[in-house]
Specification:
This protein is α/β, with parallel strands linked by helices and 481 residues long. It has one domain: Amidase signature (AS) enzymes, CATH 3.90.1300.10. The protein has an 11-stranded mixed beta sheet, with helices on both faces. Helix 10 links the parallel strand 7 and strand 8. Helix 2 runs antiparallel to helix 3, helix 11 packs across helix 13 and helix 11 crosses helix 14. The radius of gyration is 21 Å and the shape is globular.
Length: 481
């Protein structure tokens, strides 16, 4: 039996039936992770993970009830607090910072007997779409090690695709869970904003950030998501999401749902520059959906044309504020050579931050200045409102909005990508974060090159149950292509 090929449902059943041990399963994953073929991990938590696996095996042997995540090996993006383990955010600034407490979502995973194998690589402070901005070097795509796994949650996607973990928790500010899932042939899910507590998650942009889940299939992703969603008094913005909490997927019901499903295609697709393979696979999917009885129609959503610009103005403004705390005094790297306190701040931040982080701080500081805030930040907030209204109008007539997750296939790690090219990776994903709605990326069948095109579905806010049911049905139908 190949333990690494078992899905979450199979693992739970085999654990209860005594066919496998949690420790044996974990050791198989640890062995794979220690091979370090893809630079997925920043910190492995081997001892604590083995201790947890032993506890689960003991519970089962004594006939005690086990949690819903029992035996599941889970990796965690390195901007999420795990007590006693480094929380580097893939930056020199926090290279030696040890988290003094668990994030709320970590507490929930532990309470349900999930096994945390370690902290995974990412773009520095979650700023990037490739993991190339990581202080620890880029992760590699297990589908082809010469290619990028995407970002910023690239280590999360890489660890799952490489079978170094069965599930991973990442964060999604503008597509950072969905885009790497697309690049690595996985399912990536960002729930409605405020569904999952951000307590213990290093902030990039508070009004955009959302923890999300990467896994091999929709059922696995839902299993972990049900544990994570909840209102948290330590995160004033959190609301929870009972639609996810109470959802059970039924294959027959989900396939039936495709009949008569109304799907909107944003008209940005008509003039977007898509990779030929992305375009071809997307058109094949549209034909399958029509055969299944779905109604597919282009819809005018003009504000989405300004999504990238709006996103970067607002996000960079929030970044400049959030990263002010990393000054070498309160948190982070402190330079060894300085003459006064101002020199210490400047040199510590200059040494501690990478180029992309510095770029965004400078842009954000400029945008938020008294002189320019009205021209940039306030206008961008108005466009964000227009984007929300465009989605609201679309959802009056349609159940879902669909597009490719990324306009391109995974690019080579040695490709010298400009900042603008990198930002365009999120062309189809930033709108969900701007509008606060849920989004999920599903993999199309793998091509002869071993790569998969990701398909993005979005639904109205707090209708995650409809989104996941449709995704489950679509997942079952995609294999017909």
């Amino acid at each position: 039996m190949d333990l690494l090929n078992l899905d979450a449902k199979e693992i739970r059943k085999k654990l209860i039936d005594g066919e496998i041990k949690a420790k044996d399963l974990l050791l198989a994953y640890i062995k794979r992770a220690k091979e370090n073929k893809y630079n997925s991990f920043i910190s492995l938590c081997q001892d604590e993970a083995i201790k947890k696996a032993d506890e689960i095996d003991k519970k089962i042997s004594e006939g005690k009830e086990i949690g819903s995540l029992a035996g599941l090996v889970i990796s965690i993006k390195d901007n999420i607090a795990l007590k006693g383990v480094r929380q580097t955010c893939a930056s020199k600034m926090l290279e030696n910072y040890i988290a003094p407490y668990d994030a709320t979502l970590i507490e929930k995973i532990k309470a349900e007997d999930g096994i945390i194998i370690g902290k995974v690589n990412m773009d520095e402070f979650a700023m990037g779409a490739s993991t190339k901005t990581s202080y620890f070097g880029p992760s590699k795509n297990p589908l082809n090690p010469d290619l990028s796994p995407g970002g910023s949650s690239g280590g999360s996607a890489s660890s799952v695709a490489a079978k170094e973990a069965i599930l991973s928790v990442g964060t999604d500010t503008g597509g950072s869970v969905r885009q790497p899932s697309s690049f690595c042939g996985l399912v990536g899910y960002k729930p409605t904003y405020a569904s999952i507590s951000r307590y213990g998650v290093t902030s990039m942009a508070n009004t955009f950030d959302s923890p999300g889940v990467i896994g091999r299939n929709v059922e696995d992703v839902l299993l972990l998501s049900k544990v994570l969603v909840d209102k948290d008094p330590r995160d004033a913005s959190s609301i929870g999401n009972s639609k996810i909490k109470n959802l059970n997927l039924d294959e027959e019901e989900s396939l039936k749902m495709l009949q008569g499903l109304k799907i909107a295609l944003p008209d940005i697709l008509k003039h977007a520059q898509l990779n030929k393979r992305v375009e071809e696979d997307f058109q094949k999917l549209l034909e399958i959906l029509k055969k299944k009885g779905a109604q597919v129609e282009y819809v005018s959503m003009p504000s989405l044309d300004y999504g990238i610009e709006t996103y970067h103005i607002l996000v960079n403004g929030e970044i400049s504020s959030n990263l002010a705390r990393f000054d070498g005094l309160r948190y982070g790297h402190r330079t060894k050579d300085y003459d006064d306190i101002n020199a210490m701040y400047i040199k510590s931040r200059s040494e501690g931050f990478g180029d992309e982080v510095k770029r965004r701080i400078m842009i954000g500081t400029h945008i938020m200045s008294l002189e320019f805030a009205k021209d940039y930040y306030e206008k961008a907030q108005k466009v964000r409102t227009l984007i929300i209204k465009d989605f609201e109008r679309a959802f009056e007539k349609f159940d879902l909005v669909m597009c490719p997750t990324s306009p391109v296939l995974p690019f080579r790690l040695d490709y010298d990508m400009s900042a603008v090219e990198m930002y365009l990776q999120d062309l189809f994903t930033v709108s969900a974060n701007l509008a606060g709605i849920p989004g999920i990326s599903l993999p199309m069948p793998f091509g002869s090159d071993g790569l998969s095109v990701g398909i993005s579905l979005m639904s109205r806010a707090f209708c995650d149950d409809d989104l996941l049911r449709a995704a489950f049905g679509l997942e079952r139908s995609i294999n017909e292509i």
